[in-house]
Design a protein that fits this description.
It contains four helices and 20 strands. The protein is α/β, with parallel strands linked by helices. It is globular, with a radius of gyration of 16 Å. The termini are far apart.
Length: 180
């Protein structure tokens, strides 16, 4: 397996791999263009998203600035909305459901690191997917950690750190986020 194949499968991979560095250089150029597009018409920004992401539903919006690792692992449902300053570390799949509303400064993190310091020192890491359901509302500044699924119609309070799955319809707040 190549390091990219290992990364996409969720296995340990070397983060300093040349093919992955080339993919990151490509998305860095795309981010420069996207983050300069704030005054562009919504259709132009949508076309840029479709250029970089695995899937972009109709009416999906991300307000620049926006940052990601690769882009090609991100899926946005119809009408999904991400406000200013969101970060998605997409070493594996990130799925954001239709109508999800994500506040400013939210981070969706799939990248994880070995707990063993000797393994970590070898620049090995792995990813666990993040799934955001339909009609989810995530308040500004929240962090969603690797491997978390947030069910349909859930609410995540501003500034929360989501370390575990959130059931459909639940409201969670705090650090770590807990049901309200």
């Amino acid at each position: 397996m190549t390091e990219k194949e290992r990364m996409l499968s969720g296995a340990l991979y070397r983060a300093d791999d040349a093919e992955l560095a080339a993919d990151q250089a490509r998305i860095a150029g795309w981010m420069v263009r996207y983050n300069a597009s704030l005054a562009a018409p919504p259709e132009a920004r949508h076309a840029l998203l479709a250029e970089a992401f695995a899937e972009v539903g109709p009416g999906a919006v991300i307000r620049p600035p926006f940052h990601c690792d690769f882009g090609y692992n991100i899926r946005l449902g119809a009408g999904a909305f991400l406000n200013f300053g969101c970060v998605i570390l997409d070493v594996v799949a990130v799925s954001i459901g239709a109508g999800a509303q994500i506040g400013p400064g939210v981070q969706l993190l799939t990248a994880d690191h070995p707990r063993d310091p000797a393994v970590r020192a070898e620049l090995l890491e792995f990813g666990r997917p993040v799934t955001i359901g339909r009609n989810v509302w995530i308040g500004g500044g929240a962090l969603v950690l690797p491997g978390v699924t947030i069910g349909d119609d859930a609410i995540v309070g501003a500034g929360s750190v989501v370390t575990r799955d959130v059931p459909s319809g639940a409201t969670v707040v705090g650090n770590p986020a807990r049901a309200r």
